[in-house]
Amino acid sequence: MSQGIATAEGVCYIALEFAARRVLTTCLRPRKTWGAKPRAHIERVDVSEPASISNGIAGRYATAVFELAKEGKSLKALETDIAVLAEAIDASDDLRGFFSSPVYTREEMGRAAIAVAEKAGFSDIMKNALALMAENRRLFVVPQFVAAVKAAIAAEKGEVTAEVVTAKALTKTQADKLAKTLKAQVGKDVNVEASVDESLIGGMIVKVGSRMVDTSIKSKLAALQNTMKEVG
Q1: CA 113 from centre of chain
Q2: Which residue of 41, 125, 140, 168 has the lowest C-beta tally within 10 Å?
Q3: With 0-12 CB in 10 A as exposed, 13-18 as middle and 19+ as buried, what is 18?
Q4: How far apart are CA 144 and CA 50, in angstroms?
Q5: How confident is the model at residue 232 (pLDDT cuts 50, 70, 90)?
Q6: What is the pLDDT of residues 149-168, one digit of tens each?
Q7: What is the C-alpha to C-alpha distance for residues 148 and 163, in angstroms, rounded to an integer?
Q8: Cα–Cα distance between 16 and 117 in angstroms, integer?
Q9: What is the CA radius of gyration of the chain?
């Protein structure tokens, strides 16, 4: 998100176009001309919180949302909302930038959060959660919130989540085969959360809970390099 929009206090919202599975970024016309000085009363928040603090904040919101959805027998709707929100965050740099930006007022963040929720067709629980996070200036923990809700839903379904990083995107067949292999090892259904890191060159990194297996070529080359240094 450009600095010009930030200083002009433009309000951005994300329109999710599901038919094309794309995320379109639309900005409302700013109330001031480009380059205008921000109002003196604009509120700021430190979004550089330590990871442990951010995870703690996100965890509290996630627990409340999960319990409300469970009580209302709407976990399926919550699961759908979270999947859509996760996809939007992954697809849009602007959305991630907006969530972590310290320059918007509570009102602007609230309007933008509601716009995201309405365009996405989120349930009332998710819509209210985003509105509350905006009001409390906690939108910067949305990525951790998404992860925490996913984990809670997986636990409720008797699943575990495997974070898998590969040099190239896994095909559905490969992901399903990996999930089946991991299930045989951990004794539970496994939900594979895959991401790509081309620097791995080949192989993969798999993390399930506190256990991690690194078979990447990058890791093997690093180990070989260290061995060569010891020999030399």
Answers
A1: 15
A2: 41
A3: exposed
A4: 12
A5: low
A6: 998 998 899 888 889 999 99
A7: 13
A8: 9
A9: 21
